[in-house]
Amino acid sequence: MKYRVVSFLVYWLVRLIIPTLRLRVIGEARVREVQQEGKGLILLTWHGRTILPICRFRKRGYWAMISTSRDGEYQNHIFQRFGWQTVRGSTSARGAVQAALTITKQLKRGGTLAHTPDGPRGPIHVVQPGAIFLAQKSGSPIIPVGISAYPRKLAHAWDQYMVPAPFARAVWIYGDPIHIPADAKSDEEQKLWCERVGAAIAGLEAQAEREAGALDATGPKRQGWNLWRRA
User: Fold this and answer.
1) How far apart are the first and last CA of the chain?
2) Predicted TM-score (pTM) of this structure
3) What is the pLDDT of residues 189-229, one digit of tens each?
């Protein structure tokens, strides 16, 4: 019951905030091109920037991998309320094999996976090999995504989860598709591709931060609930 109650409250909080944002989306044609070809697609952004995708991708039939932890149970209820298809498990923890098999099958059928490669528990902004593995096994391209909003609140959690203020400026940037070679199997090659994908996401997020107004000439602006006003 508590999972249902919490997911219900979060669902309506997000539904109230996100539509008020002044959102600018850049590069979405890259996603449509891949999907129109009937190919599977993996969208990657950091764990702390999922509040916009959860709402904006609602009822599109996209897939999400949700951990089997207690926190994952809350997330699973929330994602399902937004019309996502979910599979429980992680590419690096309990349920890894079954989750990877299920997602790979759906990607080969042309499905879209929205994934956080530094989840479910970090370290923050470090791409784990699971995302690379899924891209290789399915033959699907990765499209990195950078997301920002300002004013906003950054939670005091490992992922610095971002909650935009109502009527905040928001920027969402899609990068170029990244194709992972199927034969890149050594530890060194896997690490290299993780670093390349991570650098792509980080670069797009930095661009989104600048365009949303979260950065100025001296660096990041101060964060806090007192900044929840229209800039």
Assistant:
1) 39
2) 0.91
3) 999 999 999 999 999 999 999 999 998 756 676 665 454 44
Phi, psi of 189 (to 5 degrees): -65, -40
**pLDDT single digits (tens) 135-186:** 999 999 999 999 999 999 999 999 999 999 999 999 999 999 999 999 999 9
Convert the chain into a string of H (helix), E (strand) and C (coil): CHHHHHHHHHHHHHHHHHHHCEEEEECCHHHHHHHHCCCCEEEECCHHHCHHHHHHCCCCCCEEEECCCHHHHHHHHHHHHCCCEEEECCCCCCCHHHHHHHHHHHHHCCCEEEECCCCCCCCCCCCCHHHHHHHHHHCCCEEEEEEEEEEEEECCCCCCCEEEEEEEEEEEEECCCECCCCCCCCHHHHHHHHHHHHHHHHHHHHHHHHHHCCEECCEECCCCHHHCCCC
Where exactly are the structural domains of the chain? 2-227
pLDDT at 229: 44
φ/ψ of residue 128, rounded to 5 = -90, 155
Report the DSSP beta bridge partners of residue 148.
Answer: 171
- If we measure between CA atoms, which residue out of 210, 218, 213 comes closest to residue 151? 213
The CATH topology of domain 2-227 is Glycerol-3-phosphate (1)-acyltransferase (3.40.1130)
